[in-house]
Amino acid sequence: MNVITRSPAPHVVIVGGGGTGGALACDLALRGVRVTLVERGEITSGTTGRHHGLLHSGARYAVNDAESAVECIEENMLLRRVAPGSFEENDGLFVGIDDEDMAYGEKLFAACGETGIPARWLSPAEALRLEPNLNPALKGAIRVPDATFDAMRLPLRWFATAKAHGAVIHPFCEVTAFAQHDRCVTGVRGRDHRTGKEFEIGADLVVNAGGPWGEKIAAMAGVDVPIQPSPGVLLALRGRLCNMVINRMHKSGDGDIVVPQRALSVVGTSSWVVEDPDDLGVPEDHVQRMYEEGAKLIPMVRSAPFRQAWSAARPLIGARGASTGRELSRTFKCFDHREQDGVEGFVTISGGKGTTARAMAETTANVVCQKLGVDVPCRTRDTILLPHTAYYAA
Which of 7, 30, 84, 369 meets the CB 3.0–4.6 Å disulfide criterion with 374? Predict the structure, then answer.
């Protein structure tokens, strides 16, 4: 009798346990790839767990960053299908307060049409009927399909589904070096912060999904990735001041969005750049700016009880030297370091947003599978994700 032996599935190690790392672990596991993910802290404890929980319609980027706008609206609609129940499908309003806003609104409305984002003009009376706490002096509004979600629970659905298909997740395990041979990355070395023990994990390929920490991670492999960490301050106020996502109808700026989250309202955000994403701070003048600018949209922001202020770093891709980060695109890029740096077995994914984590993962998984000879298509476009509670199941 002939015995057929099957070679084991290739093994991929993912460094970074944010939304992108979780979505990538899910994508690869669904394709039959063996996956191990390591994260130096708790899962989603970096940028992923600190953003305001906005499912972008793409309208914020439609005028000046059409590529990001298209990515957002496509993922917005797809995620509602594969992660049902994760979103408050409350829509969003871009609110014009002055004539300059309204002039920008004309550009915004046209750009939404060009990028496939459903949009509708509302009169001041229509907007105030939907959101009575808006600035009564508003001149008009544009309604778009924004939505909100829990910044931790949605990514946990990626992790839960990945685990159910064999992925191994190691939180509190920090990578401190790469195993390399002849300019080929063959695994990772690091420390388990729970036990204090050193570890080494071999791999056929390693993916750097460290977000704003991606540049530091890449440097350990001797390659350079142009990531500009751009933090912003967010302000949480007690009370649900709005039920829709409220945006200022102008070019992206400070304090120009109010996002309802359960019984809170999150006002965001400012923007600056740093060298070290572990050293962000929460500048008091940025907090005050959130109050001042947010109150232009919803006057009650000025007097609402304070709950918390924090900062989170965006992993923006682009030449270093930007002053605020707003000059850089919110799109994403996958780097195959064999092509760029002559280092085999190492890929980086960075940029993007929480809304586009699945698309980032699909792009990266396509690159990984091509390099490893895995001829299996992406399944995350139509696989319904497990509930977030399944992540904690034995």
Answer: 369
